[in-house]
C-alpha cells in the first residue's frame, strides 16, 4: 500500500477493535494512528510539489491499489539583481503552484468488516506560493553557488465521497480527521543550487543545474490536531537544458528549439508518500522571441514532457512565458 494513504492502514487495523468502543473513542484511535503514521508528511509533500519551479510538472498515474493519480503545475519567476556584473548577485525567486491527488480505495476496511464495505474516493487540492532570496556567488569556470532562504503558504483541502453499505459509519469515524477537511499551512526552509552559466557548443547552448531543497511545514489553521502538518521534507533536483536555432522565423523573430532532461529524488519519508522516490522528466518544444511584445517577457514557450518513474508514468503539455 502506498504511504500516500498512511492512515488507511491505521483505519484497517481499527476494524478488529470496533466492538465495545464508543464513536468518540474510535475517532481518538484514528487520530492517534494518523499521527503515528505521520499523515502530515502527505500534506507537506503535496504543498512542496505545488510550489517547486525547477521541473515543469504534469500528470502522473501510479500503478497499484489503491489507485493514485497526481497532477502538479507551477508558475515560477526568477530574477538576479546586478546580473550584468561578474560578482555576487542577489537572486530572487517566486513560485505559484497547484497540485491535486486522487485516490480510489475499493474498500476502506479491506474486507475486515463484512457487510460494511465502503468505497472511498478522495481528492486533495493544494494551492501554494513560495518566495526565496539569497546570494548568487561566482565560483569560477562559469559556476555559481546559490544558497537561498524560502518562506511560503499553502492551502490544502480534501473532498471525499463514500459509497457502499458502510458509508455512514465510515463517514462518522473519518470525516474531519482523514477526509473532508481543509487547512492553511506555513512553510519555511532553504535551498542550495549549483548552476553553470550558459555553455555554447556550436549553435547549441547547454545549461546544467543541481539543487537541494528542504522545507518545514506547520499547520496554522487546521480542522484537527492530526492535520497539524508539522513535518520536514527534502528533495534533490538535477536539470540539463539544451536549446538551439530552428532556422525559422515567425513575425520576423527567431524560433528556437529546446530539449530538457530533469531528475527528481525525494529524500527520506517524502518518497514513501507516492510509492516511489525518484522520477525523470524528458521534454522538449519551441520558444519564440517575445522581447518588446509583452511587458517584461523574454520569450514564449510551448512544449511537452514525459514523466517516468517506477510503477508510474505521466505527461505534460502546455505553454509558458519566460521573464
3D structure, described in words:
The protein has helices at 6-14, 23-36, 40-51, 167-174, and strands at residues 57-62, 67-81, 89-105, 119-140, 143-163, 181-196, 199-201, 204-222, 231-250, 253-267, 278-289, 299-309, 312-322. Helix content is 13%, strand content 58%. The protein is mainly β. The two termini are 42 Å apart. Helix 1 runs antiparallel to helix 2 (23-36). A twelve-stranded antiparallel barrel has the order 1-2-3-4-5-6-8-9-10-11-12-13.
Q: Termini separation (Å)?
A: 42 Å
Instruction: Please list the strands of the largest sheet in the order they lie side by side.
Output: 1-2-3-4-5-6-8-9-10-11-12-13
Mean pLDDT: 83
Count up the helices. 4
User: What's the total number of strands?
Assistant: 13
Helicity level, as a percent range? 10-25%
Write down the overall geometry. Answer: elongated
**Uncertain regions: pLDDT < 50 for 5+ in a row?**
none
Report the structural category: mainly beta
Radius of gyration: 22 Å
Largest sheet: 12 strands, antiparallel, barrel
Strand content: over 45%
Summarize the helix and strand pattern as letters. HHHEEEEEHEEEEEEEE
Question: Which SSEs are present, and which pair or pack?
Answer:
Layout: H1 6-14, H2 23-36, H3 40-51, E1 57-62, E2 67-81, E3 89-105, E4 119-140, E5 143-163, H4 167-174, E6 181-196, E7 199-201, E8 204-222, E9 231-250, E10 253-267, E11 278-289, E12 299-309, E13 312-322
Antiparallel strand pairs: 1-2, 1-13, 2-3, 3-4, 4-5, 5-6, 6-8, 7-8, 8-9, 9-10, 10-11, 11-12, 12-13
Helix pairs in contact: 1-2
Amino acid at each position: 500500500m502506498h504511504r500516500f494513504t498512511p492512515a488507511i492502514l491505521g483505519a484497517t487495523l481499527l476494524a478488529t477493535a470496533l466492538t465495545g468502543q464508543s464513536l468518540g473513542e474510535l475517532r481518538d484511535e484514528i487520530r492517534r494512528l494518523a499521527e503515528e503514521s505521520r499523515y502530515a508528511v502527505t500534506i507537506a509533500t503535496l504543498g512542496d510539489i505545488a510550489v517547486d519551479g525547477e521541473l515543469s510538472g504534469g500528470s502522473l498515474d501510479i500503478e497499484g491499489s489503491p489507485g493514485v493519480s497526481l497532477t502538479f503545475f507551477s508558475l515560477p519567476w526568477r530574477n538576479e539583481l546586478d546580473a550584468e556584473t561578474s560578482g555576487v548577485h542577489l537572486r530572487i525567486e517566486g513560485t505559484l503552484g497547484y497540485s491535486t491527488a486522487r485516490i480510489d480505495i475499493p474498500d476502506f476496511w479491506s474486507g475486515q468488516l463484512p457487510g460494511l464495505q465502503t468505497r472511498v474516493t478522495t481528492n486533495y487540492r493544494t494551492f501554494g506560493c513560495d518566495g526565496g532570496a539569497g546570494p548568487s556567488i561566482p565560483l569560477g569556470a562559469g559556476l555559481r553557488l546559490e544558497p537561498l532562504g524560502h518562506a511560503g503558504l499553502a492551502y490544502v483541502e480534501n473532498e471525499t465521497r463514500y459509497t457502499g453499505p458502510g458509508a455512514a459509519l465510515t463517514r462518522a469515524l473519518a470525516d474531519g480527521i482523514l477526509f473532508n477537511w481543509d487547512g492553511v499551512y506555513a512553510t519555511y526552509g532553504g535551498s542550495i543550487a549549483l548552476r553553470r552559466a550558459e555553455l555554447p557548443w556550436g549553435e547549441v547552448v547547454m545549461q546544467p543545474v543541481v539543487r537541494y531543497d528542504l522545507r518545514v511545514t506547520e499547520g496554522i489553521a487546521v480542522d484537527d490536531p492530526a492535520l497539524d502538518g508539522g513535518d520536514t521534507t527534502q528533495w534533490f533536483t538535477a536539470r540539463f537544458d539544451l536549446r538551439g536555432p530552428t532556422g525559422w522565423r515567425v513575425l520576423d523573430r527567431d524560433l528556437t528549439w529546446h530539449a530538457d532532461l530533469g531528475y527528481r529524488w525525494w529524500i527520506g519519508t517524502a518518497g514513501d508518500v507516492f510509492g516511489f522516490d525518484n522520477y525523470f522528466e524528458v521534454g522538449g518544444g519551441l520558444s519564440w522571441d517575445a522581447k518588446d511584445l509583452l511587458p517584461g517577457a523574454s520569450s514564449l514557450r510551448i512544449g511537452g514532457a514525459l514523466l517516468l518513474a517506477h510503477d508510474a508514468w505521466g505527461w505534460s503539455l502546455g505553454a509558458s512565458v519566460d521573464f
